[in-house]
Amino acid sequence: MKKYDIVVVGAGISGLSTAYYLKLENPDLDILILDKAKGYGQGNTGRSAAGFRDMFSSRINRLLSSSSISFYKHVQKDLHHELGMKFVGYLFLAANNERGRALEKNIKNIPGTKRIEKDELRKSLSIADLDKESADMLSLDPAEFGLFGVNSGIIEPDLICDFYYDALKQMGVNFSFGTSVQKLSLDPVKRLDFPGEPFLWQAKFIGSLETTTGKISADKYVIATDTWSNYLLDPIGVDSHQRPKKRQIFQVSGPAVEKLLFTDSFSGYGVMPFTILPSHGIYLRPALKERSIWIGVSDDVGRDFSFVENPEAEQDFYETSIYPVLTAYFPQLKDSKVTSKWAGYYSYNTIDKNPYIFRTMNAVVVTGTSGSGILKGDAIGRITSSLTEGKETAILYSGDKININDLGVAGRNVDPEHIIL
Ligand SMILES: Cc1cc2nc3c(=O)[nH]c(=O)nc-3n(C[C@H](O)[C@H](O)[C@H](O)COP(=O)(O)OP(=O)(O)OC[C@H]3O[C@@H](n4cnc5c(N)ncnc54)[C@H](O)[C@@H]3O)c2cc1C
């Protein structure tokens, strides 16, 4: 059994960015990244809506997102590695009511955020006035103003993963795809060679991984398995502090979609911003290449926490729950067609909705990205790698210093995030 310095389980954006900073800081480390998929970025990283924003209510989320956005911008602009990053903006639509005021309070001070009034919205986005009957039946708030953020837009997660993967390969990091970890095996720190070890009274550590391609051992492990974390951590009695929540995306196309999609009113890219409706968390994500709009939603109560390996998007859910709301705001989309759809899971921290990065024995666990792990991916990698190296603080690309304990379990110190999409 070959022994590595570090094994990273999970080659999504969290695992790749963590390994990247580990290797960059410690070129001599022998690192293996393994994933049960046939390649990298095939888990939830490959199923996301691929939006980025710094419009968060919690301080830590703002730091992690704005630093990662700056890093991705640097990669694309200065390192000439295309990430498909387009600053098309995010537009939160809201009503002049308690909910709208709370949203405005949370994000109005983020640099670059501007308020757009109703008349301007009507012109630039051709959003309709709600008819009273549908508004009552569907519990809809009118779009009375918008909050437009400029440090936000769309990106291509597969290209971000390519960036980290290419660099990791160049630095000599090993990969093993199609390798599923089935068990984290606990060993006693002081072995006595009695059958049944480790016992209650013995200090323990993760001695090896049982995988579909045999046993693998390392001094340290990084568990970056996102919504799959419970399968590995539950059996050894470690709480991942996340629960999987199914999330779906429906791509809609057609002439009316294109008319809404292509507009010069917001950014130099000639497309609508990533737009969030005032009610029920439904969002419209411009998809330029496909000349389509992706419709997504973060449904909460009523959406169970069950988990299947390959979740599917539910056409019924689109037709009965999303379509009526979407077409109440944009009646012109009545004839649009769903041309593609997919689903994945949020690794959902249901308490404060910020990521969890914590140590357990000789492993570091990264979970709870709560629907924004791409746009915070670079910062998450820097923090997870610093903790794996045994540091107490991490320095982000922005230069901000993060007390890693703040994102841990025992010393957790974050304010709750209210803006989850
Ligand atoms: C529909 C949807 C929309 C989203 N929209 C956005 C968005 O707009 N912006 C944003 O920033 N984020 C968004 N997200 C969230 C984002 O996708 C995640 O936060 C991010 O991808 C998490 O990355 P990760 O590397 O932690 O997990 P993953 O990408 O899921 O990687 C985990 C990896 O672990 C591997 N693995 C699991 N178990 C094992 C095992 N036992 N053995 C070996 N390998 C294993 C998996 O194969 C997988 O590759 C969205 C997610 C979904 C589902």
Q: What is the number of E strands?
A: 20
What CATH calls the topology of the largest domain is FAD/NAD(P)-binding domain
Classified in CATH, the superfamily of the largest domain is FAD/NAD(P)-binding domain
Rg over CA atoms: 22 Å
Tell me the number of structural domains: 2
Describe the structure.
The chain has 421 residues and is an alpha+beta fold. The chain has 2 domains: 3-50 and 158-242 and 351-407, FAD/NAD(P)-binding domain; 90-149 and 244-348, D-Amino Acid Oxidase, Chain A, domain 2 (2-Layer Sandwich). It is built from 10 helices and 20 strands. Strands 1, 2, 8, 9, 10, 11, 17 and 18 form an 8-stranded mixed sheet that branches. The longest helix has 19 residues, at 59-77. The two termini are 44 Å apart. The model has no long low-confidence stretch (mean pLDDT 97). Bound molecules: flavin-adenine dinucleotide. Flavin-adenine dinucleotide binds next to helix 1, strand 2, strand 12 and strand 16.
In a nutshell, what does this entry contain?
By secondary structure, the protein is an alpha+beta fold. Helices cover 26% and strands 27% of the residues.
